[in-house]
Design goal:
The chain is of the alpha/beta class. It has two domains: 185 residues, 3-Layer(aba) Sandwich (Rossmann fold); 78 residues, 2-Layer Sandwich (Alpha-Beta Plaits), CATH 3.30.70.1020. It has eight helices and twelve strands. Strands 5-4-3-2-1-10-11-12 form an eight-stranded mixed β-sheet, sandwiched between helices. Helix 2 runs parallel beside helix 8 and helix 4 crosses helix 5. It is globular and about 55 Å long. The chain starts with a helix and ends with a helix. The structure holds magnesium ion (MG). The site of magnesium ion has 6 residues, from loops.
Length: 273
């Protein structure tokens, strides 16, 4: 693994602390971006590396915009934590299939369904390939597989922004996806902060590739500055990665192809120290 000397030293110093956590996004970080959410699959060997990480990390968590059950279906491990819907849902290891949703999100489920219903009726006939996904406490509208993703995204925003805001929802954007969320200040950053504080983690790594992962990067920076936990943010670059992703990270991996090697290196160091 070719990291700069500074990055390698930072990684070693972080992993010297215990208890420690390994947090990772899924899509674009562990699985290459696919035309549709169902078509995405983890890189070979990655699930096995996460399973192994359970031996040297006190918390291993997949943190995703997907519903928690969908995140677990993709990774396929029972022994790790799943933080789904950008922090609004969680599945704890060995707790069985039960999803714990943030109670404050539940009153917005009906509003999300209403906006998605409207989007289906108006947008699907005009934009073949658009995928409208009801994820319970959030909703996603994917434009990647449409003939003109930029124009499709503009059409989605023009329709759903007023409809969603009228119902008190938030509208956010990811990679070729528009998302509807409850108006709660819960994101990947607040969610990992809660786990880190609750579990008293002294070190935490977070791997991510998208806008919503920057919230987690910034949370780690805050926890590190406060002396609560030594955080290390790892950006996984992609031609569609947001401009400020690398800037917000401590370590930058030039592509997802480096992720398995990086994880193996992390596990090697974590087992050695
Ligand atoms: Mg991602």
């Amino acid at each position: 693994m070719e990291l700069s000397n500074a990055a390698e030293a930072r990684l070693r110093a972080t992993l010297a602390r215990c208890p420690r956590g390994l947090f990772t996004d899924i899509d674009g970080t562990l699985s290459p971006i696919a035309p549709t959410p169902e078509a995405a699959a983890l890189l070979p060997g990655v699930a096995n590396l996460l399973a192994q990480a359970g031996e040297s990390f006190d918390v291993v968590a997949a943190v995703s915009g997907r519903a928690a059950t969908d995140a677990r279906r993709m990774v396929g491990l029972d022994q790790i934590m799943y933080i789904g819907n950008h922090g609004l849902e969680r599945i704890a290891p060995f707790d069985g299939p039960d999803v714990q949703a943030v109670p404050a999100a539940l009153p917005y489920v009906a509003a999300i369904q209403a906006v998605l219903h409207q989007a289906r009726a108006v947008l699907l006939p005009r934009w073949p390939g658009m995928i409208i996904e009801d994820k319970g406490v959030t909703g996603s509208i994917h434009v990647r597989a449409t003939a003109d993703p930029a124009a499709a995204e503009a059409a989605v925003l023009a329709l759903v922004t007023p409809a969603a805001t009228a119902r008190g929802l938030r509208v956010t954007r990811g990679k070729m996806v528009v998302e509807l969320r409850p108006p709660l200040t819960i994101d990947k950053g607040t969610s990992i902060t809660e786990v880190i504080e609750k579990r008293g983690l002294q070190a935490a790594l977070y791997l991510g590739d998208d806008r919503t992962d920057i919230d987690a990067f910034q949370a780690l920076r805050r926890l590190t500055a406060a002396g609560t936990c030594a955080g290390l943010a790892v950006a996984v670059l992609h031609p569609e990665a947001p401009m400020d992703l690398a800037h917000a990270a401590d370590i930058v991996l030039p592509s997802i192809a480096q992720v398995p090697t990086f994880l193996r290196h992390v596990l090697h160091l974590a087992t050695a120290v």
